[in-house]
Amino acid sequence: MQRWRGVVLMTVVVVATVWLALTNQLILYIHPRYVVFTVIMAAVGLVFVVASAFLREPHDHDEPPTRWQNTLSVTAAALSLAIAVGIIVVPPATLSSATLDQRAMNATGLSEGQGQTVGQAATTSDAAFARFTVLDWSSLLRQSSELSLYEGKPVDVVGFVSADPDDPQNMFYVSRFIITCCAVDAQPVGVPVYSPDWQQTLEIDDWVRVTGGFDANPSEQSTESIALLPDETTVVEQPGEPYLY
């Protein structure tokens, strides 16, 4: 009985993993570079599941399990079943402001090659600035608060809305998560936007596209010295790849 219970649970997990990969939703949980590896491991797991299903069960000479062993076995099976059902029933979803509230914005060090450096920005054309992502701008804002670095540069970024905790009435962040391995290590990065009474037209977790330019932050409560002053803020669909790398 235990063998068949394990076979069923492993089959559910493997099928769910492959389904997520085929529907391009596995990237909501892991970095895209690990998708192929994960699918290969799922296929290997499926081979073992099939082999286990056809193997003859050896004659058991062991003593029958004790009560606590039965209890432990049932508990483990229940947890495994809950995880397997959760994978199938709960719709895949990207990380949102609920996760962001548990982590500090723009607080994690970036890996080499992530974002932009002040030196790189010094030789960047306006056309290239217009293609900068939330990660690119947030990395620059962490390195320098020299306004002259940002003045006149076109900004066009996409992310979800999260409130500035120091001035939620007038400020929000265009936010994204950066992922190194999987959703567990996701860290939020964001571009501060000064937009008084933004709650009248936007909601937390709305995906928006904001265009405009940086200037000294007019907010008296926010700790951000520079903010994006929007020319236009448009609600958009969530991108196919919601995370940045």
Automatic annotation (TrEMBL):
UniProt keyword annotations, A-Z: Membrane, Transmembrane, Transmembrane helix
Database matches in NCBIfam families: TIGR03943 family putative permease subunit
Transmembrane segments: 6-22, 34-55, 75-95
InterPro entries assigned to the protein according to its UniProt record, in alphabetical order: DUF1980, DUF1980_C, DUF1980_N, UPF0703_membrane_permease
Parts forming coiled coils: none
Source taxonomy: Bacteria, Bacillati, Actinomycetota, Actinomycetes, Micrococcales
Record has Zinc-finger as a keyword: no
Protein name, entry field: Putative repeat protein (TIGR03943 family)
PANTHER family per the UniProt record, alphabetical: UPF0703 PROTEIN YCGQ
Limits of the DUF1980 domain: 10-105, 146-245
Superkingdom, taxonomy of origin: Bacteria
